[in-house]
Amino acid sequence: MRRHPKFGALAAIAAGLLLAASPAAQAGEKVWISLGDAAFAQLKKHAPASIAVASTASAQSEPVTAKSGRVAGKVASKVETIHLVEVDEDLLAALSGSVHEELNRCGGFMYHPNKQAGLANLQSHAIVANRPSRVTRPSYVIDEQATLTPLLAQMQSSNIGQTILDLSAFTNRYYKTAGGVSASSWLTQRWTNIAAGRSDVTVEQFSHPNWAQKSVILTIRGSDNAREVVVLGAHLDSINKNGTTETTIAPGADDDASGVASLTEILRVLMNANYKPRRTLKFMAYAAEEVGLRGSQEIAQNYASFGVNVVGVMQLDMTNYMGSPKDIYIYTDYTDGGQNDFVTRLIQTYLPTLQIGSDKCGYACSDHASWNAQGFATSMPFEAAFTQDNPFIHTANDTYANSGNQAEHSLKFARMGLAYAVELGTDGPGTAPPPDKVESFKGSLALNENKSFGPFKVKAGGSLKASTVGTGDVDVYVKIGAPASSGSYDCKSDGGSSTESCSVNVAANGDVYVQLIGYKASSYRLDVSYRPQ
Ligand code: BES
Ligand code: ZN
User: Which residue numbers delimit the Peptidase C-terminal archaeal/bacterial domain (predicted)?
Assistant: First the structure.
């Protein structure tokens, strides 16, 4: 394990910010965040002593931004490195602000409840591109015209508009205010009413240990393929970028009452038609998206840890402000290419008059990224191109009126979501992934001794994971195409014990090398799992 200095300077700066910003706030708690190169550079302006305890090259690329203006902001992409850093929680608002001002974009960091969770996320970054190897693949055949044509005709923008108004009537839906809690109860009741009389439908609140707002999950149990699960999501919470307390106005009409309202109209039509899916369908309204995708992250991690076979995820975050010439923009980052192609064909088939565009956020901008980080196939169809989205979000002016007192734009997304739910919902089992090959090695290492393994011949598009357990302190290094060492690796895991894990994504058929180094005298078992060529 490499040691790092303490964060004394950071604490002092954070304390200064605290006094300036909000005299009532408590002394800052330490939290773990991961962020890309550009956002890390911003963090260092606030907290020069910040140190990345781990870094990994991301399979995602990040936009290289120009100096000013949202439209001028995005000019090119480069592969970026993601860093894991421990910071004072009170610094997050300032970081978010400077990312906004200087990089002309939002957020750009992901919150982790502890270091271990942060390290796990970093590893997932290496394997996020397209992962057909790890999940069950639906056939993506489009053949439910007979069911869908009448259902699509029943969808009404007026219902969507009313739900947007209802949700935006809460003072705010912030994750730790009374309004945020009430909005969760209100939606639970609303969805429960819609599902009345259906014994195969449940509505539950998913509790989060560290804040009051609960996520809401409605489940339609599948008839004969219930173990395969399809998720449609939106976020329940809202935020005001100037700070959100009990009395702060944050209607979040577009961001993201519009997404929740789109889901609610899909549910209304499905229940009204007494539709019974073969796969299990889950509708989720996530808590705490605006503070780092925290609700969806806990849910996606929970599902992954229980081995839930999630075959597809669609995120609807902002659907009602038509800021660009095209109707639906399919976002290509933190999403799955195969499923995105399917969603494109769904629109062409069922909504042939609509124009389809594509764009990307350039960072983990919404809850789809939480599922993507766990290896599931996601899509995020969005209301506009990235630089032409609703300018009122995160303010008191994100109102229904400022989306033109209409929900015609959202209706397109609700129809697309309905087609997605019914086409995936009405299928038998998809194609299971081929099992990974696992090789195990046992041995011991003296202090500073190293031992090399491989090469392991890994198939293009596959990943290799090297993990150890044992006594002492073993560090793991993995490199694609050449021997790994502490000075040359694509992935390292060097915590303070012999429990380590490190994954790499392999773009082309290739040789992968693993090296273990004893940071203390150790004994180990190394498991290497990969998709063989
Ligand atoms: N709906 C936004 C994301 C968004 C905004 C996408 C504009 C495309 C254009 C989402 O609710 C949000 O604000 N996300 C945060 C990031 C999150 C990790 C806190 C953001 O973008 O700052
Ligand atoms: Zn949002």
Answer: 456-516
